[in-house]
Structure formats: structure tokens, C-alpha cells
């Protein structure tokens, strides 16, 4: 049997194309492709080469419309035993092809060609074509003549025109040879034999039968050459002449004739000759010819019956090659008819016949045939899918955001076909291994393992893994395959930009270009987009050229090792290189030595098929992966490079540990890590406790703009720790290093952008490069610091120093008080040094204490003098309730006055508490403020009157320097007194009431032991209270004072000084002291108030109107220097 048999096969002239000399394989292919363009030669084009020596036997030759049909056979073919019976089986012409540059000797070319032609005795015309000859070969070939035809060097178009002319000449020569053969067909003694005839010597009876068949065979041969010559003369010739026309009457005639022929072949079948030779092949060829002629959808049933009958006859064919050709033709016709699965079935039969041959070429043929069946069995390789359909599928892979495509699932994974599909893939794997095609073997093993692992035993899975490994060893490194193996990879999610890389849409028409924009990302809600409408069902995701991007993908590997039944989420990374929209259809995986592309769409279809029962197993569910969820794929666009600010806290990015009220300055480093300068920048605050950020040096950042790539700016930020609540105190009490929740800390929002554009016109919003937002969290860990354990009101003397100036009436530089707030302070941490300060409104009076160290779990006492917080006037309105004449609260006016007094008192208390502040400092940059409001308020609850109301009288001492000593320059330390020198002093008594106070003033001087220094015979301080004594003292020498006893009248006590102090005014009394011994002394003033009023008695809280009222001032220190 022969392939490609059809009704018009009888009209094709077979021409063998034989390579002569050395010809590269690709060059021979190019020459052969030139011949294929001229398989039909019109009769009208050969008239110039045709010579009619006598009247042509082809009386119906259509010179205007007819043509000769050529069938070129590259490399030729062996002669057929049936070529006498069917003339179209003969090789009627031989054309040699020579590549002259590799065959310089034309004589050897001609000799080789002549030797080749001897093997084709049936050839009527022989020609040898030489391509690209040199000049010498052209000259030499012109002399040789004969069958050699040289084609001068030229372009392909010229070569094809030259070849067309040569083929027209060959067609004319064949036509003339056909005419000669027909004229000689009835010559005497010619007996045509077929394989059906006996191969032994003919008996007399067989000779008689052969003579009777000779005339019929001769007429049949003449008809064959009429068809070859393009001269219609029978039904078949008429049919060939009307190819392409569908005439029902003609179809009926063809159907009738072929049916008769098929029936005749069946009758001539002789069982005893079946082992030798049989006309069955002609019967089957007739079935194929008729089926090919009738092959169209409307006649499908009739064609199927013919092909089925031919397939049944294949069992009786002896030659395996005939069965192979028959199955090939049946498969082709079923495919033409549209019956792809039937075509795939017979193609597999062809492959089985190839695989029965133990050679590489047969295995290659089997692999090619099986590859054509994969589409019908739906196990095709991705490489077999056309580029157009692949592009369309990829482009719309996620267009519907995970919608289910039922047809795709069914076409890719049909569980009812699984067994047959596995058999086909195993056959492809076997044929690929035999054919030595490692890539095809790897592809088949990958498809088999990936799609049908639930039905394969562990031993089979390991075998496929070995096949993958063995195939990869024979492949070059880095080779790619279109078919993925394991693992299964699906799209998990698109991560949001980190806070360091937020993308913000930019509105160039507004100064605050970032207003109303939310950070880019695939999530519908972010902490920065609250309250903004979301009109789009798909989110926009912006990537930047040159910056790494990431997506999360789920990986499932249900079989084999690494380890088995494992599933996890991994990060896939890449770097955009160009601007524009982008889709992510899948990823590349390097598995078993081969790089493959994994499409997310395929895994989505698999998972949806598993959910509906169309697929045997879910590779992710059996690995313990979470339940399938629809992934919203954003619209991804890539924009040009943008600036990129990277921040860190100088000194470390850990939590900033602060104590309550602590103030600390930190420095934040901002560096441009991008390739575009920062032209615009704005700083704002976000989150809770924004008031804990006291200051941000925005001008420092602004002065550095534009911030070029690689540049850095240090931004100072001042922070103040907030007061902890009850819940925070519980959290902080567990451990010093325990950080509070991040939501309690504020954050810096830095909106920045690069240059807008180089042109003057403002660009459209869609064309403007976006900006960015940098979120710098200020991770503050607030711990409980200094805290009051308890507070109480103390009455104690705090000495002052006698100086040249008295303290100011209200704001005291060096003050003393009878009352002070004493508190124990506890520190939940470690401080290097502590300095407590007291603030009084705008003009702060500071009390310095020696540096101390308060460790954790220890306490320290802090004294807060309250003297200068007293009211300036002692008014009787504060005692109205206690000094009513009738002891009742009666009238409306008195009630109103009482309320006013209480309101004033309450306001004074609040003012006092608000002005008292205790600050501490630790190290160089850490400082804080102690919250003492509640503690002071509790301490003053029962003693507010004692603290706020001033004493009736206040006392102060100062030194009186004369002008001479000031001008001459005194070398003594400031505030000190020389021993053995008369020191002038002055006492100032202030009346803090609105009434005149008459008093008896006493002054006492005491030494460090508390003994009176001006009384008795051992007094060490002498005094004077008059001008005469002062004058004498200033004119004496120190020795005279020690030698003469008449100065003893100077000793005594400063007492009984009568002073009338006017209301709210100061009274002064001058005196002088003479210190005999250097050292530390204290001056104390006291006064006995005479004729005390009710106000004074109320302030002193006396029980009897006759009880005396004393006022005593605080001690004033005097430092005496010199020698004894």
C-alpha cells in the first residue's frame, strides 16, 4: 500500500529527486522546496518544447486547460512490484541535484548521475541540475551537453524562474515519451505481469489465459498514460478534470464505479494465495480513495462505514508496513472528518507498530505520531499550543479575578479519561526514551506526575522522579520546558508596600499635593484611607522601575521528598525594568534540572475542579494548606524611578525608653536611597499621643532640598513622655524593658516627591509621577519614673545668708520658710544624676540640691519651700466666719463675702499648685517633669491656710557697706564679714497687714552650737546701737579694744527696740556687730506685738485675749572670716 492515495493519485507523475555529490542537508532542503512550488505544469506552457512527430494518441488532450501533475520524491524509492499493473507507481523521471561549489569535477558528477539512473529502469526522462557553478564549470558544462543543466549564480527568484523553465521542458519530454509508449503498447510478445501471476514458468493453460488478459491489460495501461498525460477519456479522467466541483450525479457515478471495483477485488481474493500475495491491499486502497473523495461532514456516516471496513481488513494484511500505512490514512481521514478521538486511536495503532521496531528512527516516528494525539486526549504539551491562543489565555488569565471557567476545567482535567491519558503519556515517555529525546521524555514524565499523582503508586512516583532526573542529566544546563512538573504554585496575595515605600497619588494643582490620597496597594482598607470612597472593584498597584517587588505564592508538593505532603507560602521577587502596565500570569520554577513556567490560571482551574469533583485530588488541601480563597489581582502599573527616603534613629532603631514626663531629643536620619532627587517634602504627625512630640526641625529638612541621591539629613525631634494610665501602669510594672503597644506611640508622616516635569506647562494628573509617604514610627516605651509615695507639710527653718541686699518682697532669691512640702520620691529605673527644680510662674526661683543617685526600689526626699508662695497681704476677710460678733452666719452680704473669700482662697490654692513644678535631669539629653499636683493638693488639704497666709511680720538682715570701702575695693568674699572689724547691719521689718503694728523688737546672735554670742562675760560678739559708739569704734584699733575694759558697756543684748510698723510698709533699724572670733553665726529677730488685733490673734490661733503674740523670723547665716 501507498500513503496519500486518492482518485487523483493515478494522474500524478512520480519524479525522483536524487542528490549528486556533496550537498549540505539544509542546502538540499532549500533546493527541494524550490521544486515543490512547481508540482503542476500547465499544458499551455510546454508548447515551445513539445514536438509532434506523428498524430498524438491522446485525442482529447486539453491544451488550453489541462496540466501535468508532478509528485516529487526526495531520494527516490525502490520499484514497486505493481508498477506494470498501475503505471502511476513507476518512477518516470529522475532529476539529479548537484551543489557545484562542493563538486568541482563535472565529469564525476555525470558519472555518478548515470549510475544512479540505472537503478530506475522505468524512468523516461533524466536530467541533472547543477546550482551555483563557477565560470569554468559553466564553460565546461556547455561543451559536455547531454542531460547536464547548469543554473548560473543568481537570487532565489531568478533560480525559481530558471527551474520552472527546466521543468516545463521535462514535462514536454515526458508527454512525448508517453505518446511513444502508447504507440508501442500493442506490440507483439509483450506480456504484463503482476504479483498475482504465477512466478514459475507458465503452463500452457496459464499462457492461454495470459494471452486473453493481454489486450485488457494493454488497454488499461493506455488509460493509465492518458491520465498521466492529462487527457480525460474515462470516468476517472473526467473526475480529475473536474476536481473541486461537487456534482451529485458525478458523485453517484464515482460511488457506483468504486463499489464495483471493491466488490471485484473481494471476489478475486483466493484463500490459498493469501499467504503469497493478495489483492486485499487494492481493495483497501479503493476504500480509502472513495472515503477521501466523499470525506465531508454531510456524508460522515458513509465515510465512517468505509473507514471501519478498511480497519477491519487491516487484520488480514500480511505486511506490517501495509498495516501502518492503512492506519495512517484512516487516522488522517478521521481527522479531516472532525472525529479527533477516532483519529487519535488509529494514530496510537501507528505508534504501536513503530514501537514494535527496535530502532531509533522508528521510535522517533512513534513519538511524532503520539504527539499528534495529545490534543485529542487532552494531555498536550504547552509547546503544541499556538502562540495566539496562549497569549489570549494568558492575557485574560486573571481578568475575571478568579472566576470559574468550567470548560477549561473539564478540558484540562477529566477524571473519566485519566486511565487512558496516563497510558498515552507513558507511551510518549517510552518512545521519547528510545528516540533519545530527553526533553520530550522530561515533558511526558512531568505531565504524568503532575496531573495523575493520586493514581500513581509511590513506586511509580519514584520511577517518574528517576526519569525526570535521568532526562535532566542529558539536557544542557538552564534549558527550559513549557510543561511544569512539581510543585504546584498558586497566587496567594500581593503584599502592600512597606511603610518606607508607600506610593501616593500626586495632585500638582494643590500645594498639599498628597491630600485625599491613600497609599497604593491591593487592600480595600488601610489605616491611611479611612473615610475615602472606593469606587473601583479592582485596586491599583504601582511598581517602580529598578526597585524590587514581591508577591506571595502558595506552594504545594503532595508527593515525593523535600518533604512530602508539604505546603507553604513563599515570596517571589523581581525588579521592573520598563514603564507600563504589567500582568503576572505565573512564575518560573527550576525543578529536576529544568526551568519551567507555572501559570497561576492552571492551578486555579485545578482547585475549582477539585471543589466540584472534576479532579481527583486537591494538591494543597492534602498538604494542610488553608481553604482556597479568591485572590483579587490588582491592576499593576510600572512608573519611572522615584526618590526613596530611608530612615533610622541615630543610635539605634529600638524602642525609645522614657520615663513619665521625660523630655529627650532624638535625631532621625533621612537618606535618599533612590536615583531621583527629593524636591518636595512635608512633615506631619499621625497616631495617638501626638502632643508628646514637642518640636520637629522641619527647617533643617527644608534647607537641604532638593535632597540628591545618596544625600542624608539629620532631623532633630524633641519628645516628651506622656502620663501612664492605670492599664499602662499595670503593663509597665511587670518589667522595665517591656514595651507598650505600638498604637500608643505617634508616627511621623513625611510626604515627599521628585521633580514634576521639565516643561513649563503643568502636566495632567495622570501623567504626573506619584509621590511617596514615609512613615517613621516613634516607638516610645514609657515607664513609670519618679513618683510620689507620700507628701506632708513640715514646719522647719531653712536659713538664709546675710548679704548686702534684701530679698525682693515677692520673688525671693534666697528665702527661708517655716513650712515646706516634704515628699519621698521613688524611682522605677536608674538615673545617673537628679536635679530637682522649682518653677514659679514666669520668674522661676530654683533650689539646687547636690547631685544624687536614685536607684530602682529606693526613695529620696525632696523639700519644696513654700514661703514665697504665700499671699502678699494678711487680710481679715479670710477669718470672717470665725470672728462674727454674734457667732452666726446671717446676712446675705456676709454670706456673699464669705463665698468670695472662699473662691479667692481656692483660686490661690490652685495657683499655688500650678506654679510648683519639679523637674529632673538624667545624663545630657534626658530630662523630665515630676507630676506632683495630686500629692501637693493632698498635703495642703488640711493646712492650706497656714501655708498661704503670710505672717503678720517678716524680718530680714543685710550688710551696710560704706562708699569708701566700695570705692577702695574690698578683697573679702561677697557676703562675708571680717573678724575684729565693726560691721554695720540693718534689720528690715515688714508689716504684712493693713493695720499699724506696735512691737518690741529683739535681735539675737548665736554661734554654730546655738549658744547666745552677745550675752554674758564670754560673749564673742560686741554690738552697738548708737552713732557715738559707732564713731569711736571706727577710730580705734583692734588692739585698743582688747586692752581697755572701759568698753565693756558695749556688751549686752539687742532687745526692747520699740518700733511702730506702718501698714504694708517696711521699718528699718541700724546696728553694728564686732565679731571677735571667726566662724559661722546666725542672726534671729523676734518681736512682741503690743495691743494685738483680732486679725493677729486669729492668725496666731490664740485661745485667750491676754495671751502675748510673738513673731519670730528665720535664722540668717553670717560667715565671719579672719584670725582669732
TrEMBL record:
<feature type="domain" description="Trs120/TRAPPC9 third Ig-like">
    <location>
        <begin position="847"/>
        <end position="948"/>
    </location>
</feature>
<dbReference type="InterPro" id="IPR058564">
    <property type="entry name" value="TPR_TRAPPC9_Trs120"/>
</dbReference>
<dbReference type="InterPro" id="IPR058567">
    <property type="entry name" value="Ig_TRAPPC9_Trs120_3rd"/>
</dbReference>
<protein>
    <recommendedName>
        <fullName>Trafficking protein particle complex II-specific subunit 120 homolog</fullName>
    </recommendedName>
</protein>
<dbReference type="Pfam" id="PF26280">
    <property type="entry name" value="Ig_TRAPPC9-Trs120_2nd"/>
</dbReference>
<keyword id="KW-0333">Golgi apparatus</keyword>
<dbReference type="Pfam" id="PF26251">
    <property type="entry name" value="TPR_TRAPPC9-Trs120"/>
</dbReference>
<dbReference type="Pfam" id="PF26282">
    <property type="entry name" value="Ig_TRAPPC9-Trs120_3rd"/>
</dbReference>
<feature type="domain" description="Trs120/TRAPPC9 N-terminal">
    <location>
        <begin position="7"/>
        <end position="197"/>
    </location>
</feature>
<feature type="domain" description="Trs120/TRAPPC9 fourth Ig-like">
    <location>
        <begin position="1051"/>
        <end position="1120"/>
    </location>
</feature>
<dbReference type="Pfam" id="PF08626">
    <property type="entry name" value="TRAPPC9-Trs120"/>
</dbReference>
<dbReference type="InterPro" id="IPR058563">
    <property type="entry name" value="Trs120_TRAPPC9_N"/>
</dbReference>
<feature type="domain" description="Trs120/TRAPPC9 TPR region">
    <location>
        <begin position="302"/>
        <end position="468"/>
    </location>
</feature>
<dbReference type="Pfam" id="PF26283">
    <property type="entry name" value="Ig_TRAPPC9-Trs120_4th"/>
</dbReference>
<dbReference type="InterPro" id="IPR013935">
    <property type="entry name" value="Trs120_TRAPPC9"/>
</dbReference>
<dbReference type="InterPro" id="IPR058568">
    <property type="entry name" value="Ig_TRAPPC9_Trs120_4th"/>
</dbReference>
Amino acid at each position: 500500500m501507498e500513503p496519500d492515495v486518492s482518485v487523483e493519485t493515478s494522474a500524478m507523475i512520480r519524479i525522483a529527486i536524487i542528490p549528486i555529490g556533496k550537498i549540505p542537508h539544509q542546502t538540499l532542503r532549500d533546493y527541494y522546496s524550490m521544486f515543490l512550488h512547481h508540482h503542476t505544469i500547465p499544458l499551455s506552457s510546454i508548447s515551445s518544447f513539445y514536438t509532434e512527430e506523428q498524430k498524438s494518441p491522446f485525442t482529447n488532450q486539453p491544451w488550453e486547460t489541462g496540466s501535468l501533475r508532478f509528485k516529487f520524491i526526495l531520494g527516490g524509492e525502490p520499484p514497486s512490484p505493481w508498477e506494470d499493473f498501475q503505471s502511476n507507481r513507476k518512477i518516470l523521471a529522475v532529476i539529479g541535484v548537484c551543489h557545484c561549489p562542493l563538486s568541482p569535477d563535472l565529469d564525476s558528477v555525470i558519472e555518478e548521475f548515470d549510475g544512479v539512473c540505472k537503478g530506475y529502469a522505468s524512468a523516461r526522462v533524466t536530467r541533472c541540475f547543477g546550482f551555483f557553478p563557477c565560470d569554468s564549470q559553466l564553460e565546461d558544462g556547455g561543451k559536455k551537453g547531454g542531460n547536464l543543466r547548469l543554473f548560473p549564480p543568481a537570487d532565489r527568484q531568478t533560480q525559481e524562474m530558471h527551474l520552472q523553465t527546466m521543468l516545463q521542458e521535462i514535462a514536454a519530454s515526458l508527454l512525448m515519451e508517453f505518446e511513444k509508449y502508447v504507440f508501442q503498447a500493442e506490440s507483439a510478445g509483450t506480456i504484463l505481469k503482476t504479483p498475482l501471476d504465477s512466478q514459475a514458468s507458465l503452463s500452457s493453460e496459464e499462457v492461454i489465459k495470459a494471452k486473453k488478459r493481454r489486450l485488457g491489460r494493454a488497454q488499461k495501461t493506455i488509460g493509465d498514460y492518458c491520465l498521466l498525460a492529462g487527457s480525460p477519456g474515462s470516468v476517472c479522467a473526467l473526475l480529475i478534470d473536474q476536481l473541486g466541483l461537487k456534482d451529485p450525479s458525478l458523485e453517484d457515478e464515482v460511488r457506483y464505479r468504486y463499489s464495483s471495483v471493491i466488490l471485484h477485488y473481494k471476489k478475486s481474493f483466493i484463500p490459498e494465495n493469501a499467504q503469497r500475495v493478495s489483492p486485499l491491499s487494492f481493495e483497501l486502497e479503493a476504500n480509502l480513495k472513495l472515503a477521501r473523495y466523499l470525506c465531508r461532514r454531510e456524508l460522515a456516516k458513509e465515510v465512517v462505514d468505509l473507514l471501519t471496513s478498511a480497519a477491519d481488513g487491516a487484520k488480514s494484511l500480511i505486511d506490517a508496513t501495509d498495516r501502518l500505512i492503512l492506519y495512517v490514512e484512516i487516522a488522517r481521514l478521521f481527522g479531516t472528518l472532525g472525529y479527533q478521538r477516532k483519529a487519535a486511536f488509529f494514530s496510537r495503532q501507528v505508534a504501536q507498530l513503530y514501537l514494535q521496531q527496535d530502532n531509533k528512527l522508528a521510535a522517533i516516528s512513534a513519538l511524532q505520531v503520539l504527539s499528534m494525539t495529545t490534543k485529542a486526549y487532552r494531555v498536550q504539551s504547552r509547546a503544541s499550543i499556538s502562540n495566539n491562543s496562549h497569549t489570549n489565555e494568558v492575557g485574560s488569565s486573571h481578568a475575571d479575578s478568579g472566576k470559574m471557567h468550567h470548560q477549561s476545567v473539564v478540558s484540562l482535567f477529566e477524571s473519566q479519561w485519566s486511565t487512558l491519558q496516563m497510558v498515552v503519556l507513558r507511551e510518549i515517555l517510552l518512545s521519547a526514551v528510545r528516540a533519545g529525546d530527553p526533553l520530550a521524555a522530561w515533558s511526558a514524565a512531568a505531565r504524568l506526575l503532575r496531573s495523575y499523582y493520586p493514581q500513581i503508586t509511590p513506586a511509580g512516583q519514584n520511577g517518574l522522579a528517576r526519569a525526570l532526573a535521568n532526562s535532566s542529566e542529558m539536557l544542557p544546563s538552564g534549558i527550559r520546558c513549557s510543561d511544569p512538573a512539581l510543585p504546584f504554585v498558586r497566587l496567594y496575595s500581593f503584599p502592600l508596600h512597606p511603610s518606607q515605600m508607600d506610593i501616593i497619588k500626586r495632585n500638582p494643582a494643590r500645594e498639599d499635593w498628597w491630600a485625599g490620597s491613600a497609599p497604593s496597594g491591593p487592600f480595600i482598607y488601610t489605616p491611611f484611607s479611612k473615610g475615602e470612597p472606593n469606587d473601583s472593584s479592582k485596586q491599583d498597584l504601582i511598581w517602580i522601575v529598578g526597585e524590587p517587588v514581591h508577591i506571595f505564592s502558595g506552594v504545594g508538593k503532595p508527593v515525593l521528598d523535600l518533604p512530602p505532603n508539604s505546603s507553604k507560602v513563599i515570596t517571589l521577587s523581581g525588579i521592573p525594568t520598563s514603564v507600563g502596565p504589567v500582568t503576572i500570569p505565573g512564575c518560573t520554577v527550576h525543578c529536576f534540572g529544568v526551568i519551567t513556567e507555572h501559570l497561576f490560571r492552571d492551578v486555579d482551574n485545578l482547585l475549582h475542579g477539585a471543589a466540584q469533583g472534576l479532579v481527583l485530588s486537591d494538591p494543597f488541601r492534602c498538604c494542610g494548606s488553608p481553604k482556597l480563597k479568591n485572590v483579587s489581582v490588582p491592576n499593576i502599573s510600572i512608573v519611572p524611578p522615584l526618590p526613596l527616603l530611608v530612615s533610622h534613629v541615630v543610635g539605634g532603631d529600638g524602642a525609645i525608653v522614657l520615663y513619665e514626663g521625660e523630655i529627650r531629643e532624638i535625631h532621625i536620619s533621612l537618606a535618599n536611597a533612590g536615583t531621583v532627587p527629593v524636591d518636595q517634602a512635608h512633615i506631619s504627625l499621625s497616631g495617638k499621643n501626638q502632643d508628646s512630640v514637642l518640636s520637629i526641625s522641619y527647617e533643617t529638612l527644608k534647607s537641604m532640598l532638593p535632597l540628591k541621591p545618596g544625600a542624608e539629613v539629620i532631623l532633630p525631634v524633641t519628645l516628651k513622655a506622656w502620663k501612664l494610665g492605670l492599664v499602662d501602669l499595670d503593663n509597665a510594672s511587670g518589667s522595665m524593658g517591656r514595651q507598650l503597644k505600638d498604637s500608643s506611640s505617634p508616627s511621623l508622616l513625611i510626604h515627599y516627591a521628585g521633580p514634576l516635569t521639565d516643561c513649563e506647562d503643568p502636566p495632567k494628573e495622570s501623567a504626573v509621577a506619584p509621590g511617596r509617604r514615609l512613615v517613621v514610627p516613634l516607638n516610645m516605651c514609657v515607664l513609670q519614673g519618679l513618683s510620689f509615695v507620700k507628701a506632708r507639710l513640715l514646719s522647719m527653718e531653712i536659713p538664709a545668708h546675710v548679704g548686702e541686699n534684701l530679698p525682693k518682697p515677692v520673688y525671693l532669691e534666697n528665702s527661708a520658710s517655716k513650712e515646706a512640702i516634704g515628699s519621698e520620691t521613688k524611682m522605677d529605673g536608674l538615673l545617673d544624676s537628679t536635679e530637682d527644680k522649682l518653677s514659679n510662674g514666669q520668674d522661676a526661683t530654683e533650689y539646687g540640691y547636690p547631685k544624687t543617685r536614685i536607684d530602682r526600689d529606693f526613695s529620696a526626699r525632696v523639700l519644696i519651700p513654700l514661703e514665697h508662695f504665700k499671699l502678699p497681704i494678711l487680710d481679715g476677710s479670710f477669718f470672717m466666719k470665725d470672728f462674727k460678733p454674734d457667732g452666726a452666719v446671717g446676712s446675705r452680704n456676709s454670706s456673699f463675702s464669705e463665698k468670695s473669700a472662699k473662691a479667692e482662697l481656692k483660686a490661690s490654692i490652685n495657683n499655688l499648685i500650678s506654679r510648683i513644678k519639679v523637674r529632673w535631669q538624667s545624663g545630657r539629653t534626658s530630662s523630665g517633669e515630676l507630676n506632683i499636683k495630686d500629692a501637693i493638693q493632698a498635703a495642703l488639704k488640711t493646712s492650706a491656710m497656714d501655708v498661704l497666709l503670710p505672717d503678720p511680720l517678716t524680718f530680714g538682715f543685710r550688710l551696710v557697706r560704706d562708699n569708701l570701702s566700695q570705692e577702695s575695693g574690698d578683697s573679702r568674699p561677697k557676703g562675708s564679714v571680717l573678724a575684729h572689724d565693726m560691721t554695720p547691719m540693718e534689720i528690715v521689718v515688714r508689716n504684712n497687714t493693713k493695720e499699724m503694728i506696735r512691737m518690741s523688737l529683739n535681735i539675737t546672735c548665736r554661734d554654730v552650737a546655738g549658744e547666745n554670742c552677745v550675752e554674758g562675760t564670754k560673749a564673742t560678739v560686741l554690738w552697738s546701737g548708737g552713732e557715738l559708739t559707732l564713731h569711736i569704734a571706727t577710730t580705734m584699733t583692734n588692739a585698743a579694744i582688747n586692752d581697755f575694759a572701759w568698753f565693756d558697756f558695749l556688751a549686752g543684748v539687742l532687745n526692747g527696740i520699740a518700733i511702730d510698723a506702718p501698714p504694708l510698709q517696711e521699718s528699718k533699724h541700724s546696728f553694728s556687730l564686732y565679731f571677735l572670733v571667726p566662724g559661722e553665726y546666725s542672726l534671729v529677730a523676734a518681736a512682741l506685738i503690743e495691743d494685738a488685733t483680732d486679725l493677729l490673734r486669729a492668725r496666731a490661733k490664740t485661745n485667750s485675749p491676754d495671751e502675748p503674740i510673738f513673731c519670730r523670723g528665720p535664722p540668717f547665716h553670717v560667715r565671719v572670716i579672719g584670725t582669732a
